[in-house]
Amino acid sequence: MSELDDVLRGWFGPARDRIGAMQVAPVVAHVGTVTRIGDGVATVTGLPGTKSEEVLEFANGARGLVLRVSVDEASVVLLDAAEGIVAGSAVRGTGEIIRVPVGEALLGRVVDPIGRPLDGGPAIIAERHDPVERPAPGIADRELVTEPLMTGLTVVDAMIPLGRGQRELIIGDRKTGKTAVALDTILNQKDTDVICIYCAVGQKASTVGQVVESIRTRGNLGRCIVVVGEADAPPGAQWLAPYAACTMAEYFRDKGMHALVVYDDLTKHAIVYRELSLLLRRPPGREAYPGDVFYLHSRLLERASKLSAAKGGGSLTALPIAETQGGNLTAYIPTNLISITDGQIFLEPKLFYEGQKPAVNVGLSVSRVGSATQAPAMKAAVGTLKLDYGQFLELEVFTRFGAMVDARTQAKIDHGRRIRAMLAQPQFRPAGLATQLALLTATASGQLDPLPLPVVERFKAALPDRLATDCPEAVARITETGKLAEDDRAALVAAVAACIAAAGG
């Protein structure tokens, strides 16, 4: 037996020694069980320590966010596909809130609401991960909105000016050019210091692809971030997308930089939240929306701000998009968003179908920041433009019935038609400040009134190149300072006259 003991000791002795040397310590893991799953929402039991808005991880690696906690179960919205998750699947509590990567490594990338790349590029090495839900800056941390944010659209920059740190709603019926206005604004920041974030909520993948391609070919994708919660993504991911995009934008604002975030669109975002709330068995209210649907968007849009100098002086401008039905601005979600934002750009189907693009209804559009954000040269050039255009729209209604008008009234109508032609602008053709000033100056002085409308169109198309050729120094000074000196004004007037003559005027 002694020989056998020696053999066994030789075989098992080292293993026994290694086992004895192991440090054994208790490990606590919060593991629960999925009891029900469907429509992007899972019900979980066995996690008594779960907190609201905690991230849970399922056995297949998918992540979910706790939105409702009761005594014996928790309701979780999925942020990933539900394949592989069935009743009885294990789920683990992480004890963490949802965070997304932020930093300059995201520039030029297309990511999902959790920050994972969708463009086929390498993994993103973020500077840090910030919570998607963050408090808005307090009143003492904010500064007045006074710096202009040029959209490149003459009708907006002249009559509905935007400022850095503002929240301006873009609203209108389906297929009236809402995304086009926001996209042109992004393209116009190509050579500025503004970082752009485009957030797609519930959009088709083909639509998002067109936006990304437009930015890549006509703008500067290297200074943009695209956050996508497309239509076939889980409802939880679509709901999370705007908050994730805002957190990514706040990184640049807090560093003293300027950021612009476009939410396309918040009507679909509210519908997704209504869907989740009904699945979570929350009490429905008006139009079946939950009672906190106003807070859903107010806590998001209030994060847009212009910070004070003590906080770095950065800004975050928000351009939320909302869809109306039949031009009804008094519907539930549109009225909520109008009351939260600092103004709205209303796009009218009638103008769109008549070929007036962008189809901005100047009478129903407003910027509550007003001319405080306009460049001095623009403020002086606009003058009575909005009043003259409004009077023309009223007079034109009477002329459609064949009423006789006197020469003075006819002159106002002719002048108004030139204003309307000047405000029309094709997509992907944002105009610089100098070009807009030249157009406004020529229109206000009456130089365009004797010209036939086809000649006005040729003049508009040729003007940017003419200014770049005839007076590049004046264009550079106007763009840099926002002011129009007498020498620069004379250079613009001469270029306008030459362009009118070349167009056949």
List the helices and strands and how they pair.
Elements: H1 2-21, E1 31-38, E2 41-45, E3 54-58, E4 63-69, E5 74-78, E6 90-97, E7 99-102, E8 110-111, E9 128-131, H2 154-159, E10 169-172, H3 178-187, E11 194-201, H4 205-218, E12 224-229, H5 235-254, E13 258-264, H6 266-279, H7 293-301, E14 305-306, E15 315-323, H8 332-340, E16 343-347, H9 349-353, E17 366-367, H10 376-382, H11 385-399, H12 407-423, H13 433-444, H14 453-470, H15 472-481, H16 486-503
Parallel strand pairs: 8-12, 10-15, 10-16, 11-12, 11-13, 13-15
Antiparallel strand pairs: 1-2, 1-6, 2-5, 3-4, 3-6, 4-5, 7-9, 14-15, 16-17
Helix pairs in contact: 5-6, 7-8, 10-13, 11-12, 12-14, 13-14, 14-16, 15-16
Q: What does this protein structure show overall?
A:
The mean pLDDT is 91. The protein has 16 helices and 17 strands. With 505 residues, the protein is α/β, with parallel strands linked by helices. The longest helix has 20 residues, at 2-21. It is elongated, with a radius of gyration of 29 Å. The chain is 40% helix and 18% strand. A hairpin with a 2-residue loop joins strand 1 and strand 2 (41-45). The strands form three sheets. Strands 8, 10, 11, 12, 13, 14, 15, 16 and 17 form a nine-stranded mixed β-sheet that branches. Strands 1-2-5-4-3-6 form a six-stranded antiparallel beta barrel. The N and C termini lie far apart (119 Å). The protein folds into two domains: 140-373, P-loop containing nucleotide triphosphate hydrolases (Rossmann fold), CATH 3.40.50.300; 380-503, Lysin (Up-down Bundle), CATH 1.20.150.20. It has helices at residues 2-21, 154-159, 178-187, 205-218, 235-254, 266-279, 293-301, 332-340, 349-353, 376-382, 385-399, 407-423, 433-444, 453-470, 472-481, 486-503, and strands at residues 31-38, 41-45, 54-58, 63-69, 74-78, 90-97, 99-102, 110-111, 128-131, 169-172, 194-201, 224-229, 258-264, 305-306, 315-323, 343-347, 366-367. Helix 5 packs across helix 6 and helix 10 runs parallel beside helix 13 (433-444).
